[in-house]
Amino acid sequence: MRTRTLGTTGPAVSELGLGLMGMSDLYGPADEAESIATVHAALDAGVTLMDTGDFYGMGHNEMLLRDALKGRDRERVVISVKFGAMRDPDGGWVGNDGRPAAVKNFLAYTLRRLGTDHVDVYRPARLDPQVPIEDTVGAIAEMVQAGHVRHIGLSEVGAETLRRAHAVHPIADLQIEYSLLSRGIEEDILPTARKLGIGITAYGVLSRGLLSGHWRPERQLAAGDFRGMSPRFQADNLQRNLDLVEALRRIAEAKGATVAQLAVAWVAAQGEDIVPLVGARRRDRLTESLAAAELALTAGDLAEIERAVPAGAAAGDRYAAPQMHHLDSETPKNAS
């Protein structure tokens, strides 16, 4: 697989990365053996970027990745970890902690669960409104100096926060949702990242399955699947969004591709500084998504896709209102 570099200061990674969240949390039950087999299949296909979070399954996701990497060359894998989101015993969300002491505490536990001596990219999952971003990034920078972290990333922050953080220590990449249905970064956040030399790791490239081409309106979600609370999956919104998918399907089929492959390829085509993360939990879905790396989109293709799904066409916000409130990237000064 070809490689891309996370910004001007970050590591070289595969042009597509693997997001592991759904293997432990938020999308309903997952088969652990199949999850590990999927990680192995990704590694064998040349995927080097593995994205996890210490709060995915309250540590389960990191331990799953540790098990999947046994016997593999650690230095050939770039592990990206998000931290700071706090959970309760019932899986609820109880805030974010970006205090310097908490940064070091979270990292200590992550290193033990992963069975490694360093994290390649370490990032707060959300901005802690009670802690200046300079303090949080400064604490991670100390961990870089100590050798426990290789690069610093951010997640779901806006342009102003990017600038402030980058002034403290070079930021390798910003992880943020970006897809045909979520294009808010294009107005200010993406141009700012490019001006600063910060890469983008794009999650949600299939919009939580809406752009997979496999979603059906009658699908019943499993208990614990957060999409049951997502505005884009509600009643009329869902049908309007699936109508957009059908428009994409016609374009994809004309190219001998699937909707998922077209959606992933579109994100990858937005710039060499963007690395899409695919969230496959099974090997068949992984194989489908990775084939997007071989799908070349012409200027004509991109124009046709734009006509089918123009910016702002999605029905419903990408998160429910309480979650949107906690996104620095969606505050009035940052949202498009």
UniProtKB/TrEMBL annotation:
<keyword id="KW-0560">Oxidoreductase</keyword>
<dbReference type="InterPro" id="IPR036812">
    <property type="entry name" value="NAD(P)_OxRdtase_dom_sf"/>
</dbReference>
<feature type="domain" description="NADP-dependent oxidoreductase">
    <location>
        <begin position="15"/>
        <end position="308"/>
    </location>
</feature>
<dbReference type="InterPro" id="IPR050791">
    <property type="entry name" value="Aldo-Keto_reductase"/>
</dbReference>
<protein>
    <submittedName>
        <fullName>Aldo/keto reductase</fullName>
    </submittedName>
</protein>
<dbReference type="InterPro" id="IPR023210">
    <property type="entry name" value="NADP_OxRdtase_dom"/>
</dbReference>
<dbReference type="Pfam" id="PF00248">
    <property type="entry name" value="Aldo_ket_red"/>
</dbReference>
